[in-house]
Recover the amino acids of this structure.
């Protein structure tokens, strides 16, 4: 059968998919034992339709009690979207799978639409997972998607860590895993399987719109390029994972947090013969202390490392003051570009997830001098008072009108939880080790186990 072009109609599954054994290796490494439910992200395109049908067959054979919920996100961008969601719902019903359609409502941004749509889609899929009582969502990225992503990053000069491409799983906002069991499979293989089964899918017209970078890159990639890039991604992911594990070991052994907001590092890291892991650890800690989503530029971090390795020094990078003196080596948030009092962001300054009863007329902002002074009274004696004061002055406090009530989390009706800034929204599975090390350092929520049993799916 031919794919559906822009409009959906009911799928007729005649004869079913090929034997599950042809694809079960894609799902064998998922940690499904003990799970009650899995959510599937299904748009109606060939990749996600194959995911729904293949995984439903696998689950019936291997985990018959597992509840599956297919979720389609209507981004509200095309008039055909509602019909396409109905198409998926009917296909899911034919497989005995529950289906939900979630809509991205409200105004859409004039720029960065694709990124905003992706974030909205992930947020809605995570919401569906929570409501279904699971922390696992399967999405249908393929080897083609992997090659396109790496090629786009290379063209933008985002090599290094970016060369690892799409992770086999990503933790969304510390709670929901998005796993990609088909990441090693070519799209042409999935479409051939659908065609053999007599199953339709939907072709989104935007996939042919050359205004989008991914569409242009898809057209430019050769078959050989897709295969070569896929292999290179595996090697890069292994290197990134290994470097992250080395950095994690350094953070666990060499970093402490003597007071809130102040990271102390053993200056011995500057004497290590292998500098790459130490520089990577420093980049991670700079981003964490500064509330940054992205690690600081590698070359700037190398220069900072060299300056600090030479002896007493003070510099700023990524919103962080790095100071090496006779008392040690310290990192703390720079007193610049802090959120204005009353900022309603769910994560304050990129560093703390805060809830507070704003209906009581309270707001979050920097603490006053009296609050900082009280905190200093309990600071350890081996921490320079000047540095402790600087760190305390950048913590979130609760205000009512012009009165500071205390630090967030110590005032009734408030909670305050540190977050690992570079991975607060998305944690790729190859960065789990350093994320865990930093979580332990700053007292953040522990990183949950990745949704794999034993080895990663990449190794299987």
């Amino acid at each position: 059968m031919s794919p559906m072009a822009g409009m959906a109609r009911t799928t007729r599954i005649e004869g079913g998919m090929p034997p599950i054994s042809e694809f079960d290796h894609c799902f064998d490494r998922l940690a499904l034992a003990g799970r009650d439910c899995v959510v599937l992200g299904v748009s109606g395109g060939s990749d996600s339709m194959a995911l729904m049908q293949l995984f439903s067959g696998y689950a019936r054979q291997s985990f018959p009690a597992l509840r599956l919920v297919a979720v389609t996100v209507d981004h509200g961008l095309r008039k055909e979207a509602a019909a396409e969601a109905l198409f998926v719902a009917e296909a899911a019903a034919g497989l005995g799978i529950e289906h939900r359609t979630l809509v991205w409502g409200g105004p859409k941004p004039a720029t960065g639409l694709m990124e905003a749509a992706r974030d909205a889609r992930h947020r809605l899929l995570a919401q569906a997972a929570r409501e279904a009582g699971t922390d696992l969502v399967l999405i249908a990225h393929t080897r083609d998607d992997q090659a396109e992503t790496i090629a786009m990053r290379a063209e933008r000069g985002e090599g290094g860590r970016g060369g690892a491409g799409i992770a086999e799983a990503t933790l969304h906002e510390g709670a929901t895993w998005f796993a990609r069991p088909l990441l090693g499979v070519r799209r042409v293989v999935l479409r051939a399987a659908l065609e053999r089964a007599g199953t339709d899918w939907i072709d989104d017209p935007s996939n042919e719109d050359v205004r989008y970078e991914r569409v242009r890159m898809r057209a430019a990639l050769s078959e050989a390029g897709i295969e070569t890039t896929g292999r290179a991604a595996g090697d890069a992911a292994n290197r990134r994972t290994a470097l992250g594990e080395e950095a994690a070991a350094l953070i666990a052994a060499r970093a402490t947090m003597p007071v809130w907001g102040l990271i102390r590092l053993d200056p011995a890291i500057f004497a290590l013969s292998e500098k790459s892991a130490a520089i990577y650890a420093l980049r991670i800690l700079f981003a964490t202390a500064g509330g940054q989503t992205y690690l600081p530029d590698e070359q700037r971090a190398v220069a900072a490392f060299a300056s600090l390795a030479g002896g007493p020094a003070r510099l700023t990078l990524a919103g962080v003051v790095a100071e090496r003196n006779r008392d040690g080596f310290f990192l703390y948030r720079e007193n610049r570009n802090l959120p204005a009092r009353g900022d309603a962001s769910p994560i304050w300054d990129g560093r703390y997830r805060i809830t507070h009863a704003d209906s009581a007329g309270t707001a979050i902002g920097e603490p006053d001098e009296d609050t900082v002074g009280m905190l200093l009274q309990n600071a350890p004696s081996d921490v320079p008072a000047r540095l402790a004061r600087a760190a305390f002055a950048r913590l979130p406090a609760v205000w009512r009108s012009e009165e500071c009530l205390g630090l967030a989390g110590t005032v009734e009706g408030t909670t305050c939880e540190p977050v690992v800034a570079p991975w607060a929204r998305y944690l790729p599975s190859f960065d789990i080790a350093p994320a865990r090390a930093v979580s332990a350092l700053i007292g953040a929520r522990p990183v949950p186990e990745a949704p794999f049993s034993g080895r990663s799916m990449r190794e299987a």
Notes: The mean pLDDT is 89.
